From TrEMBL:
InterPro entries for this protein: CheY-like_superfamily, NreC/VraR/RcsB-like_REC, Sig_transdc_resp-reg_C-effctor, Sig_transdc_resp-reg_receiver, Tscrpt_reg_LuxR_C, WalR-like
Domain called HTH luxR-type: residue spans: 145-210
SUPFAM superfamilies membership: C-terminal effector domain of the bipartite response regulators, CheY-like
Gene3D superfamilies hit by this protein: 3.40.50.2300
Name of protein: LuxR family two component transcriptional regulator
Amino acid sequence: MTRILLADDHELIRGGIRMILQSQADFEVVGEAADGDRAVDLARSLRPDLVLMDVQMPGLDGLEATRRVVAAGDCAVLVLTTFNRDDYLFQALQAGASGFLLKNASPEDLIGAVRVVARGDALLAPELTRRLFDQFTSRPAASQRPDLLDHLTEREAQILRLVAGGASNAEIAAGLHVGEATVKTHVSRVLGKLGLRDRVQAVVYAYETGVVVPGDNTP
């Protein structure tokens, strides 16, 4: 059973999302919050598997609420917003969100996104990676190489660059002519060595540290 907390300041929207989620036998909505402060409190007390977090709410907004929930290790966060804005996307991922979804998504997409995040993966679509890339095109390259990168093998560094480029495990496996299970093992090792939680954090890390430089397509 996946236990879900809804955080949105519009009761009608919460009601619609609740109906969609509770149509699934393995989903349970365990609480609802109309503002960020309440979302943080309920995440701490209810210990859901994930929070569906709106961005714009009265008082504490969804971005800061996400940061606090993730920092406390209470659960994963899937940001759900009406606003298709790059600054919201990037700030949400920097805050530690495991996914970003627009409210015009279909019920099937919402259900699928919840399943992805609930099992500990990140919702990282190729178009999301493109938008992350665009965030960094005007930024200078990192001036120093983090020491943690020295702990990666040549193959692991290559895997990190491919993940940062938005490639799926299946695409990486096909390109490197190895099994998908081998790729999963490499990805897990990269995340572990760099202290990252998921693929979304890996993409942000790769661009922030200069592992991937905008305009460089070298794998």
